[in-house]
Design brief:
The structure holds two protein chains of two kinds. Chain A contains three helices and four strands, in the order E-H-E-E-H-E-H. Chain A is elongated, with a radius of gyration of 20 Å. By secondary structure, chain B is mainly α. The chains are: A alpha+beta, B mainly alpha. At the A-B interface, strand 2 and strand 4 of A face helix 5 of B. Chain A: It comes from Opisthocomus hoazin (Hoatzin).
Chain lengths: 115, 125
């Protein structure tokens, strides 16, 4: 249950994506969804693999797989020149329905030493 | 003399002492006293700005609203006025966005400078 996000450069995005997805499937992960978050200029210049990048395409892959893949994949993608940055993120579970209002904080109780 | 103690130590106090009654407890046989209950005129609980909104590291616009435009530092709780949970979530999301390369670190994205102000920060003149 995780998300995987990376962004890369270069006009041959299709080939890179294909490579990564194949690598993921090899390790036994099930790819649910692949999203393209657009190509935009990076917020700061990133120098990776002896090259300074200013623009990049962001991609988000919805994965399901065993947690043992993570380290192997990070290694594998670290060696890929086209991928500038990679990250695994846990699938966000949204719990916003329970938000009860703000409870006024009792500052006096905080000052008295807690025992 | 059974024991060298005063009589009021040997006999349990329930027998001879006057029964102590708390002022705010119901007293038997007094129907006109006020009935203890929760405040019926209590208003709805105060909600912070993000109370129903899901915070994501991807929507940079929302996150940039809680960041200083000059230095890019995250505003504290006394400025944003968010509740505990949401402040923590926002901080974590902003940090993530920095690392993943979504949001600039040292400044605020210039396209988001004209967003409505949520934080009540007072700049020195």
């Amino acid at each position: 249950l995780s998300l995987f996000f990376f962004f890369l450069l270069k006009p041959e995005t299709a080939a890179v994506l294909k490579r990564t997805v194949e690598a993921l499937m090899e390790r036994g992960a099930v790819v649910r969804n692949l999203e393209n978050l657009g190509e935009r200029s990076l917020p700061y210049k990133i120098s990776k693999h002896k090259e300074r990048h200013r623009r990049g395409g962001y991609f988000l892959i919805d994965l399901e797989g065993p947690p043992s893949i993570v380290s192997t994949m990070m290694d594998h993608l670290g060696r890929d020149i086209d991928i500038i940055r990679r990250a695994f993120v846990k699938h966000p579970v949204s719990k916003t329905e329970e938000c009860s209002g703000m409870i006024p904080v009792n500052y006096e109780d905080k000052l008295i030493a807690k025992k | 003399m059974a024991a060298r103690r005063p009589w009021w130590r040997l006999v349990p106090a329930a027998l001879w002492r006057q029964p102590r009654r708390l002022q705010h407890e119901r007293q038997p046989g007094r129907p006109d006293q006020p009935i203890p209950m929760e405040n019926p005129y209590k208003g709805p609980p105060k909600k912070c700005v993000l109370c129903g909104i899901n915070v994501d590291y991807k929507n940079v616009q929302l996150l940039s609203q809680f960041v200083s435009p000059h230095t890019g530092c995250i505003y504290g709780r006394h400025i944003t006025g968010l509740c505990n949970k949401k402040q923590k979530e926002i901080t974590k999301a902003i940090k993530r966005a920095h690392v993943f390369g979504f949001m600039p670190v040292m400044f605020k994205n210039p396209s988001f400078l004209t967003d409505p102000k949520i934080c009540n920060i007072k700049y020195p003149e």
